[in-house]
Amino acid sequence: GSRMKIVAAQLFALRIPFIEAFAHSVRSRTYSDSIVVRVEAADGTVGYGEAVARPYVTGETVESCLDFMKAVLWPIVRQTDYPVPWGEAGLDWLNQIVATLPTEQLEKEDNSVIAWNAARAGWELALVDCLLKIAGKSLGEILPPQRPAVTYSGVITASGAGQAVKMAKRFK
Q1: Residue-wise over 9-24: b if at least 16 C-beta within 10 A, else e?
Q2: What 3-state class would DSSP assign to 134?
Q3: Which of 37, 46, 72, 97 has the most CB atoms at less than 10 Å from its CB?
């Protein structure tokens, strides 16, 4: 199959305010921090991904995540020749993306980070988006849904009982 180089990338740090504060047993937040990854392939195709650093989950902060994404992951992405998912290639192209991006630092100078899962996810998602666009495929074609419907829920923040009841009624 064909292969593609990523020739440019941009990282955008966003702070997205919530309509109302979100609280749970560990933290209360009034915004969500997010890092958007934009990659551009040699043919001009652009792909996007998102990294969501959560210090209380992996130890990653937006700042440390950006540093790791730039210093460690970008050089790997820039030098890798990625396979484009053509024909019946299966998931080898996806496995190659996963195999090239580490979640651990080679030298452990920052012990506060457990794993660089958010940093890696941002690059992975951008690469998958870009390569699928080049191939003219959707992820649903390659990984078809396993069930016809998805059940999801809302999260009731750790606030007073009255507020929890009000939110539960609204969700219902």
Answers
A1: bebeeeeeeeeeebbe
A2: helix
A3: 37
